[in-house]
Amino acid sequence: MARVAITGASGLLGGNLAAELVAAGHRVVAIRRAGSQIGHLDDLPIEWIDAELRSTAAMTRAFAGADCVFHCAAAVSVQRAVTPEMVETNVTGTANVIDAVIAAGVARLVHTSSVVAVGLSTNGQPCDETAAWNFDTQGLVDAYAITKRRAEEVVTAARDRVDAVIVNPTYMFGPRDARPSSGKLIIDVVRRRVPGWTPGYNNFVDVRDVARGMLRAWHRGRRGERYILAGHDMTYGDVMRAIATVAGTKPPRLRVPKPAAWLFGKWGDLVERTGRHPLINSTQIRYAYSDRFRFHSTKATRDLGYTCGPLEPALRDAIDWFRAHGML
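Structure (tokenized):
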């Protein structure tokens, strides 16, 4: 039985990763900020330690004796403009985690990046880990993509100092989404708050498949390598219909006209310029109509033995979890 540490355990991925580690017989320690919502993980024997990403010393103490650190903590936002808070959490925080891992003598770091740090398809075929980052030239760059890319560069630059493996998940669904994060789409579809569907593509995956892939990255990943942990390329319309089918409700029926969506996105841009956080902006609208967000996991399957199952169990278990916790 190993001792492992997690940053960001209160999030969707971190919580499911903790559950997988516990099920595999490992001792889990997780760092948290004061006031973090952790009640949804009360069923797991996690040792919680107060430590923030800005404190290398506190994280070093928390990581002491760990065989592996899984860095899942991140600031997620639809904002287009990079803010100091996003840099502090995603970039500087990652650098601090690396320093703490080294100071604590941890054998391996598994860094959670994202496919937004990889690249977009330019030929209609799913991307692999070698795809050049082109979110800026494709009009799909935002603060999250920029800071996650920079965070991954921090990890890569430290490859001579730390034994790190990088994982790049896609759009995850599943239980334990207390915020909610990606599960907000599920809630909105089930509650019939979504006015219509769009034809753009994304790659959707069961968060528990990603968590199990991360365990495999710990044991089998090659130092300094990145691994896309993907699922299924689907249009937003198709995934909304899948959600509605599992939930037993009606899906959005109308395709949202692009000009109307474009105007809504421009309104969000104006809101963002006032310093507020919009529900959506022009970048998100481009995502909703883009067919270039496609990925595959051939490398992870070959090197790690990564597998992904159908999406429906993730949707079903997420819906059941939301209902059990009064979120639906």
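The chain is about 40% helix and 15% strand. The two ends are 37 Å apart (CA to CA).
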